[in-house]
């Protein structure tokens, strides 16, 4: 059949309009025939709002993309060319717990590579693996593109515990860093190239090029002096100038959690008092967005969506799908099987690295080993991800504890156990695999 | 200054008209301001013929490329953006010895990865390293692009024994394989993509894609059945069908020497009787070409040049220069520092691998390890190249003997010594570094 | 129960008296309570002769070792502490074919790492893996010590295709090299230490020490000058002095096949004419030995046994068992899982390397990577072993062909196929796993 | 000359009597002919006290060991068989600063792998490298055995920045763990074997064997339940039982600093208030010891010496020297060049690993990679050691800052800078290499 079939699981997400906009914008070269928005029964209402908006957007744009909705993903999957997932098991309520509980023990929750991320992974990975089994059965040729966080841990789990090899984890951090660097240097984005290597939310720019010339020194000077690059959802506490110069790498915004732990903790504690957790802030934003989406006169993506931390996520997804479909052979930074690209990390692990995107999929560029100064931290997060993925699959209490205890944000074995126990209890509805081991 | 300055060492080569044609064809996007053709005093006459033709070609095409000639490369180098080398130390006479002497001992000479290649390397590498020193001094920002054979060994030597990192070794084999596969499948070249990995003249296609779908099985069926893919300069002795299916990799034409040694040896011995060595055949071709070039009415590249084994070499060079200059980010197969791209080979060695070509240079794509069935042979040739490069620099008789003895074409330590001794004597004019150790 | 239980599969072998002698000699520290000699029904007669001799030997020595015999290994295995195997699937008749058929095609048969070894492996590995399954079931705590050739390939197969981890492959080559070096230097064996690394019958001495001082240079001088070190079963064709000096490693006797291929081939062809294959020579020796063994007055190991190529094999086995049982922590050279000891070979492959022998088993000593000059050849033999083991298990014709074609002794794909086809036919009685793929 | 010559640099140390006792005890098999005690001029008085005691000890024991003293190490070195170093640049006063200053910023000083260790390394490494240069010149055949802390960092520096390869770093931690495990299990030490792998003060028992059987589970049960194993100088804060079971590795006492950071920090802050830093406690102990040593009636090592954290250090040194001299081939745990023994760490780095000790030196046993759960932390400390060693040699402020900032005990880039700046100032007398970069 002509055209592309895309299935978006978690289609009722507030991010979906960005995705729709992305497909509309690219329609001339990326002919999406069908877009299936799939959600779970309890998300029915959001799905209705979002899909109605999607239909209005498509109609207004005048492109022949069919919007389908279903609460049964097995109905949607057959014949899919691309399956994307943007799910949030346990909703923002769960995220709020991921952030609040660790803070009680003086530990940053950090919803991807911290204790919060561990629990997000424990909840999300089993669901993702079920989706993978359906894909293997119903559309084995499809590309599986995940942008549910923690994207690195999820990609690790898919590579280790499913039969799917055509899988890509997506993140908007590298694209954000690229944009920020271009802005700092006051040049067009296309003149900048950055060699990225690391893990999801633990990625470094190894070198920055302007028109092919290495300009890391200049970029770091600016980063350390002026207001430093960050994400919408991460407070900028400033970098120690000498440290940044010594590091001689471009850190990602999330590195603040590891290199400025104290300050970030203070900020989070202050913010919690002032306005609740980030999850709670986002809940308010979500409500606002859905009120907007419900307005039947709205037929474009509203500006407010860009206020979310996840801005450009869906655009990145469209870009990726476009490059695969059209064999663009451009460079994008995604989470894939390492295959030796970062020689200091296991070849069979997921890494976040600059890839060339072809119609055979992303091919990672060989970066050598991570620089000495960061190879330990990166390995530690990779170990955390691996143990977390294993715990999510096996439901082993000890493996989960080990993941928690080796996380760089957790500084004591007994604190690790306390946080783990309280969070297991708090999330038990979404963690059936821990039923037995928890009792033990 | 506007435009690009290119210095071509060995500019009096018969291949030069292809280079000129390449620059003319690409002028709109690749504005070559100056092309310096450099040669040694004894090549003065050829240089005059070739540069005169070059000037006529440029004039006829109406592009403002200045053609300069000099017998002193230090005059040419300052300010160069690209330096290319296409030198032949000892001329075709030396190549004839490289081929004839091993055959006396029942061994294929093989001018790149065989005993002949060892001696070509021993003669060529010291000259290349002198050129490198001049580049480091006079135009340290230039890209150094070598297409003198043995290109893998030369690149290994430049990486290990010079201070130059912006170096690329070029080969026309992968481009020829790509074209041949497209022809076999009767599709346009642009629809085919091949993942290449290995060493110079020891490169494998790991997978072949047609429109993004893996089609290795189909390609190998065709390769094993019909007339098999080869180079102008390599006899096609046919592949054993079951072997090719078992291998499940696309071999390069030079693999015949290692997987069909007996037949290739017979062919070479027969050919020697019939028409002399390949070198001698080429000498006649060369004479013809220079007669053509001298014709003042000629102002285009003559068709006959394409009969040479090195066809498309210069075109490949122009392509590469163009992609670097214009940051094309296309995939080309070149010889570069491995950097982990092929995980079963040392990170600091030269490999031939699919790279994305940017304005920061080629970035190799991570291919994982060489497949089990070929990893030994590839490592053996890499060891041969390393020892040969070391011997070329140190003039160590023992290291040269070791290189000769471990070459897969040489099956006995005593034969290795006999060939080595006779070749050292035959080439002594071009091997001053062996003066002492040879006496010993 | 007090004392050790040992099960020897292939107990009717002519080597068994050496094993008995070894256990008698070591009885005071190695109290063997029961020794079970197991053989197959068609070996019943040999088993009777050998076990009768064994009983006479034990009685004469006055040690309380019980000798049991059985034709059903499952009767013998329960409670075993050590299981040793010395089997020869297809008997010497099969070995004769392993040697004769390749020679018809101008290729050395080489019963371990050559075409002959491939077929020995194809016959032997399935039987060994059945034994492994019985061990896993009946005596999972036992050490499994194999000295059936090709010992490297068999160990690779056990590591990859059985659940047994307590497995060791044994070889008498390193011990023979050690003895020969001591003899060359005219010193006691205990003053010599050699760092061994490589594969079975492809092992190198990386350094030789006399009283802790490196003496490789001196040893190689002697090796290259006088009569060179070899095995009873390998002709000494002499080493090229300069090659050996250049190599700067101690080669094993089997390296002649790869570094002196032509001369070895001539020798084998001559020997075939003169006295038949080595297998046929051994058949005569065997007959002689069994005539001796049948003599009821004989109650010691006869001297003639030492004429076999496998001399010291059984002694090496007793030594190994003794060191494990008594936690001797001495250094022995055995075939075990690499575990990074030789960094240029896969961590999960079998290697032959100096190990410290403890009561937890052998622990390999870290040797770094194989030296550049030999890493290719060693990798090629490892690849050959891996493919051969895979073919033995899967019965894949293509995998067997690939193993044959990449063997360094085989120089052509079509020759590989011819030898393979003739040998598959000749051995089909012992290769049920190839029934189908052969037909294809 | 008969007998062994040993040179002990830092001979005036209070540990020396243990060394003397060790040599006396082993005299029959380890005939020390001359022991040279070397110190710096300001240590003259201590040297006199210690050497006088040494002479009384030797005389009383009736062994012919000559005790020499000198303030010029170049007088002592010629002809040495072993050179040992036990130096403390800046004395206990400096150590007190190493501990006090970080505590001001809420960071544990930790005198080996913490901020304190960084400064100990910056002071010590340049002195050690000068000693190395003298050894290379005056006794190039000698073994250089260092037990100055931080021993891992110092060994890394010697391997990277000196020409000495015969170097070993010594630590008493593994021997203490071995003793403690034997005590826990109530068995003789000789029945226990532990596979050790990691770094100095960051070493893990990968498996514990009792009579060859793996007993890690039992050992960890005991470790987590009863009073846990520790050093004299490290407070026992107890392990979280579930964590230890989850880890499934035997941690070393120093791991408390990383897995129980908060509690250890509290303890240190409390202890500081109660009795000053550990350095200050040790200063008092030292005074006491020297008072004892000065007693001319004392001719044996006083019991009180065993109260020091460094107990068994000198005994370990004697053991090591004995095993090298007598080619004991026993297993000891020392700091040496990795050489692939721990495959997840660089081959050319220093690691602490079980080695077999021969007269050619220690040969590390291949352990595979560090387990997933700890590979990140171990790599981080290795990176810290490498950067610290580099900073010690180059005097680079940025490199020192990077080392400080990536240390797992330091949680903020700005705190890292504050501690670094205050410590550079406090120690400036001993850090001439930082003169310039500090000013900058």
TrEMBL record, chains A, B, C, D:
Q: Read off the PROSITE patterns from this record.
A: GLYCOSYL_HYDROL_F4
Q: What is this protein called?
A: 6-phospho-beta-glucosidase
Q: Keywords on this record? A: Glycosidase, Hydrolase, Manganese, Metal-binding, NAD
Keyword Manganese part of the UniProt annotation: yes
List the taxonomic lineage. Answer: Bacteria, Bacillati, Bacillota, Bacilli, Bacillales
Q: Domain Glycosyl hydrolase family 4 C-terminal, which positions? A: 196-410
Highest taxon in the source lineage: Bacteria
Instruction: Write out the similarity annotation.
Output: Belongs to the glycosyl hydrolase 4 family.
Q: Does the keyword Metal-binding apply?
A: yes
The species is: Planococcus wigleyi
Classification via InterPro entries: GlycHydrolase_4_CS, Glyco_hydro_4, Glyco_hydro_4_C, Lactate_DH/Glyco_Ohase_4_C, NAD(P)-bd_dom_sf
The record's cofactor note says: Binds 1 NAD(+) per subunit.
Checking CDD domains in the record gives:
GH4_P_beta_glucosidase
Requisite cofactors: NAD(+)
């Amino acid at each position: 059949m002509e055209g592309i079939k895309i299935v978006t699981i978690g289609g009722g997400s507030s991010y979906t309009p960005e995705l729709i906009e992305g497909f509309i914008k690219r329609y001339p070269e990326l002919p999406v025939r069908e877009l299936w928005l799939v959600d779970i029964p309890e998300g029915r209402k959001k799905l209705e709002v979002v899909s109605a908006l999607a239909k209005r957007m498509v109609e207004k744009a005048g492109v022949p993309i069919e919007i389908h909705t279903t609460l049964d993903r097995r109905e949607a999957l057959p014949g899919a060319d691309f399956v994307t997932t943007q799910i949030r098991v346990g909703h923002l309520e769960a995220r709020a717990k991921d952030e609040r509980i660790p803070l009680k023990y003086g530990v940053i929750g950090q919803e991807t590579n911290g204790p919060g991320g561990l629990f997000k992974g424990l909840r999300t990975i089993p669901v993702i693996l079920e989706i993978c089994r359906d894909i293997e059965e119903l559309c084995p040729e499809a590309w599986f593109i995940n942008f549910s966080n923690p994207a690195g841990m999820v990609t690790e789990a898919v590579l280790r515990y499913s039969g799917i090899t055509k899988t890509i984890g997506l993140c908007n951090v590298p694209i954000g860093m690229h944009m920020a660097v271009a802005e700092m240097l006051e040049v067009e984005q296309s003149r900048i190239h950055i060699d990225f290597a690391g893990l999801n939310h633990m990625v470094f720019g190894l070198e920055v090029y302007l028109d092919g010339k290495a300009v890391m020194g200049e970029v770091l000077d600016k980063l350390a002096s002026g207001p430093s690059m960050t994400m919408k959802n991460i407070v900028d506490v400033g970098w120690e100038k000498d440290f940044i110069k010594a590091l001689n790498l471009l850190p990602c915004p999330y590195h603040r959690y590891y290199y400025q732990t104290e300050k970030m903790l203070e900020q989070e504690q202050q913010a919690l008092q002032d306005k609740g957790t980030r999850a709670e802030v986002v809940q308010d934003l979500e409500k606002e967005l859905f009120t907007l989406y419900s307005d039947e006169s709205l037929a474009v993506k509203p500006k407010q969506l860009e206020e979310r931390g996840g801005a450009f996520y869906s655009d990145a997804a469209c870009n990726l799908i476009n490059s695969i479909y059209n064999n663009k052979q451009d460079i994008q930074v995604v989470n894939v099987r390492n295959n030796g690209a970062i020689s200091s990390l296991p070849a069979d692990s997921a890494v976040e690295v600059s890839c060339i995107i072809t119609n055979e999929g992303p091919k990672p560029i060989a970066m050598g080993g991570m620089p000495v100064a960061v190879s330990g931290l990166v390995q530690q997060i990779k170990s955390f991800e691996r143990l977390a993925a294993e715990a999510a699959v096996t439901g082993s209490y000890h493996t989960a504890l080990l993941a928690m205890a080796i996380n760089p944000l957790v500084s004591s074995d007994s604190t690790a156990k306390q946080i783990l126990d309280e969070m297991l209890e708090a999330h038990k509805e979404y963690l059936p695999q821990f039923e037995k081991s928890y009792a033990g």
